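Problem 12. The chain below contains 69 residues. Write out its predicted structure in token notation.
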Amino acid sequence: MGIQVVTCARCGHACPAAAWRALPRERTLTRADLAGYVSDWPVNAVVEVRSCAGCGGAIARRAEGGRAP
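Solution.
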């Protein structure tokens, strides 16, 4: 398994997942936040939102137990 890469859908900037995790977390969406959109969401899963280092756009990734891959 190679290095995981996070790519911004807005500008295409790509960085290793570890570098993305080092960026300040802008928001964390919990099961309660997603209840109106997702019918079956794992109890320990959240969505972490961080700003792209290239353009500042939001990049969201699912995280288990509060840690995104």
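Discussion. The longest helix spans residues 17-22. Students who got a different answer should revisit the alignment rule from Section 12.3.
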